[in-house]
Every structure is written in C-alpha cells, then in structure tokens.
C-alpha cells in the first residue's frame, strides 16, 4: 500500500498555473477518495522562484489545496533545485519511517527524476510512477497510468544532476556539532596520518545514523552520496585525499588485501607501503584495528568482529605486512579502536566456548545461555601469541584514561554508532591510516 504521494510540479511553466491548479485539485481529490481508510502523506514539489514569482506560485498552490482538510498530512515543498526539494521530502519520509512512494510527474521529468531518486535514496524505498502529461498551454492537463519506456540520459545531463546534488549536500550544515577524530599516541604522527571517527560532524540526519555515518548499504536509509559527503568532510579535517581512500570489503573472515596485488572479492584486512594511500576499516561494535610499522614504513587496517577475531584477522594482517614488506613483527604497532565492550556484548553459549578456549577471561558468566564476550582481550592474546610485543598494542587495558580511545560503542550513544544498541538501520564509524608523503 502506498504510504506517501509525491506530486512533482517543479519544472512546469508559470503560464500554466490555472491548469496546474485544476489538475492539482483533481489529483488530490482522487487521492482523497482512494484513501478513505489509509490516507497517505502528500508532498507537492515546486520551484522556489525569486521575488513576486515565488509569492504568486505559492498563492496558486495554496488555493488549490483549500478544502482538503481530510488530507491532513499534506505539504508543499518549494526549493531552488530538484535536489534540494527531493532531499527535503526524503527527510519528511524518514521522520515518519515511510518507504512506499507514488510519484506523479510530467512524462518528460520521469527519466530525470529516476536519476535523482537513484542518487538520493537506497533500496529500502520502493517507488512507482504515474504520468502527469502536459498536452498544450490551451488544453487541460490529464494524468494516466501509462508507463513510458525510459530513455538513457545524455552523460552531460547525468553529470549536471550529480553536480547539483553534490553542491547541495556540501552546502548543508553539519548535524550534532563539529567533526571529531580520536588519535593514538602509540602511532608516530611524523610518519603516519591516522584516526578513529566519532558520530559528529556529518550531514546524516536519521537518529541512528546521525551524523557522520561512513557506510551505505541497500538495507539502510543513508545513500552513497551522503556517505561520500561525510567522507569528504572527514578527509578535509584529517588531511587525506578521498580519491585514494580504500575501505576493506567486509566478509567477517580473515582474508587480507595487499595493495598493488590482485584484489580479493572480499577481505577484512588491507595493507600498503604506498605513501598517500589511506586505508580504512569500519566498525559499529566490531573493532576497527590499525597497524603501523615505523621502521619499514608500512601500515594496515582490519575489521574484526567476533567471527573475524576467532579467525585471527588481526594476526593475518600482521603476517601480510611481514610477508609483503619485510616487516619485523616486533616493530609493528597495533591500535584497537572503539568497539563493543565485554560490559555489553553477548553471544550464544556455543560461540562463547571458542573465546573461552582462547582464554577463560575472555568470557564472563560462562555458564549462562548468552555469556558476555571480550573480543578485545581475545584480539590482544592472539596478537601476542603471534609475536606482537605487548607494549606495542593499545586497547582498553591502558590505565591512563586520557590516552584511551578504545571506548565501548554501545555505552556511548553520543559518541559512537552501535549495531548492538541501534538495530538494523545503524551507522558506522571507521579507523583510517596512511603513510605521509
């Protein structure tokens, strides 16, 4: 069942106002009749022109809306660009958790609108289209359900749309304060650029994604363009080039990508000795782990959830640095970023047994159905067994709290995202590292 209706009047000329008014009235009347039980939200999208034109357009729209008191959830959205108007409507949809949208629009706008929607929405949303056909200035406007075969837009039009969206997103103020980056004193900042992000300083507005979400998927409501803008702001603040940014392709396993060699389809670790290349690992309870060798000048990043921890992804990343760049394991520095702590994280008893085998201290309340698990301690133990020096590992065991960056993500909703805490539409922070030029 349609949850919202978007009527696109954005690009219709002003000399058709009388016809538009009549059409809008008829369209709303049809929506009202068909929605006696479930009244959808209705959004009318129009262009915000300057001066008297703007005032006149709003007046004629408001005139057409009079008398539709039963459609209580009706809003006119005026903006200077399609990107701005559509993004504003997306915010309204997300506030109400709506996902099934009918778009009523002129036939000539359909292919353009689909491009905007592809950029600003994800697969969470379902769209259906109904044509709004402008026949001529002198004839009436009419709607039809006829579906027209889509045409591929010229590349210059695609580029203009992408530029318009990018410019609009860049103009938005940050949500929830300034961008904050946590840094480790263990990694020498004269050789490496590194950090762990928090949730502030981006433009993501959905509560569980707000505000510097750095991952997009088909199951979440933040589109790639928003994540890209958040990354651009992070890159500006941190000082790296987003064009040479590489994030692991999470598989919750232990494969490692060596930059410059054949890239695996999926991998949770990545290493390089190339200057200016930024490596990153996500985390939203899983551990983003950073690796640095100041002697051989190599670095790495890994994503270590409970499965990856058991499979030894962190030590696999260390071994990749040793084999690819001749690193000495005793020179490698390892920093564990913000992740869910043993105070909050539970696993079924069968999975907990695997952590108990690593060290009984990795499990709390072992005899319960869902014991508490310490994936950080397990990671440290496996690294130390692999030859990494204890003093070269920074995690939550550090006594100086001013130096601690391995916070529990679930315990700090103001600072970090947490899948465990926030559910399926969760945000993601990252750990990142690069070798300075």
UniProtKB/TrEMBL annotation:
Q: How does it assemble?
A: Interacts with FASN. Interacts with SDHA. Interacts with ATF6, EIF2AK3 and ERN1.
Q: Where in the cell is it found?
A: Cytoplasm; Endoplasmic reticulum; Nucleus; Peroxisome
Q: Which GO terms describe its molecular function?
A: copper ion binding; hydrolase activity; S-methyl-5-thioadenosine phosphorylase activity
The protein, known as:
Purine nucleoside phosphorylase LACC1
EC numbers listed for it are 2.4.2.1, 2.4.2.28, 3.5.4.4
Gene3D superfamilies xrefs: CNF1/YfiH-like putative cysteine hydrolases
Q: Which reaction does it catalyse?
A: guanosine + phosphate = alpha-D-ribose 1-phosphate + guanine; S-methyl-5'-thioadenosine + phosphate = 5-(methylsulfanyl)-alpha-D-ribose 1-phosphate + adenine; adenosine + phosphate = alpha-D-ribose 1-phosphate + adenine; adenosine + H2O + H(+) = inosine + NH4(+)
| Major subcellular location class | cytoplasm
Q: Which GO terms describe its biological process?
A: inflammatory response; innate immune response; regulation of defense response
Q: Which keywords accompany this UniProt record?
A: Acetylation, Cytoplasm, Endoplasmic reticulum, Hydrolase, Immunity, Inflammatory response, Innate immunity, Metal-binding, Nucleus, Peroxisome, Phosphoprotein, Transferase, Zinc
User: Which Pfam family is one of this chain's hits?
Assistant: Cu-oxidase_4
Q: Which family does it belong to?
A: Belongs to the purine nucleoside phosphorylase YfiH/LACC1 family.
Cited InterPro entries: Cu_polyphenol_OxRdtase (IPR003730), Cu_polyphenol_OxRdtase_sf (IPR038371), Cytotoxic_necrot_fac-like_cat (IPR011324)
Taxonomy, superkingdom: Eukaryota
Coiled coil feature spans: none
In the UniProt record, which is one GO cellular component term? Answer: endoplasmic reticulum
